[in-house]
UniProtKB/TrEMBL annotation:
GO cellular component annotations of the record: extracellular space
InterPro entries per record: IL-34, IL-34_sf
Species assigned in the record: Centropus unirufus
Protein name in the entry: IL34 protein
Origin: domain of life: Eukaryota
Length: 170
């Protein structure tokens, strides 16, 4: 799997990993693995903070949160969403391998962010990341379709990685 994803090379950078993620999050793949292979109207219970939409990013940008902090937030929210989806799937489910590959890409991206500490980002982002990883937010949950989680992941990623990574070139 790692060779197929191109991860056997020496630590691809953040932009390369985001390109690999974009390829894995193509509409057809999200539709097939996150909608067609799930029961009709299937939802996951996630914390409100685990749903990161473009509007959230716009609001945080207007609040002068740095792009690096927004990427850090996107990484934590998106990797948690993919992990939640992966955890509900039995190993023989047709979407299991797909979500496993997404988890591996996020693990590799996590290495890029490993030097980043919560103390290095704005307080609002650090607080959101803590909420995403906290177990005591049980009362603040909402039902979300798996495809919607990955749709948001891709939309926000495109907002955050668009210009610096020059998508589609190379």
């Amino acid at each position: 799997v790692l060779a197929v994803l191109g991860l056997e090379a020496a630590a691809p950078g953040e932009c390369e990993l985001s390109r690999l993620l974009q390829d894995k999050l193509q509409y057809e793949l999200r539709l097939q693995y996150m909608k067609h292979y799930f029961p009709i109207d299937y939802t996951l219970q996630v914390q409100y903070e685990e749903v990161l939409r473009p509007a959230n990013i716009t609001r945080l940008r207007n609040g002068t949160v740095s792009e690096a902090a927004l990427r850090y937030l996107w990484f934590h929210v998106s990797s948690q969403a993919v992990l939640r989806i992966h955890e509900v799937l039995p190993e023989k489910h047709p979407s299991w391998k797909y979500t496993q590959e997404l988890c591996q890409l996020f693990d590799a991206l996590g290495k890029e962010y490993s030097e980043y500490r919560q103390t290095d980002v704005e307080v609002v982002v650090a607080d959101l990341v803590k909420l995403v990883h906290s177990a005591d937010a049980e009362s603040r949950r909402k039902a979300v379709r798996p495809k919607a989680l990955l749709d948001n992941c891709l939309k926000v990623m495109r907002m955050l990685y668009g210009a610096p990574c020059e998508w589609g070139q190379g």
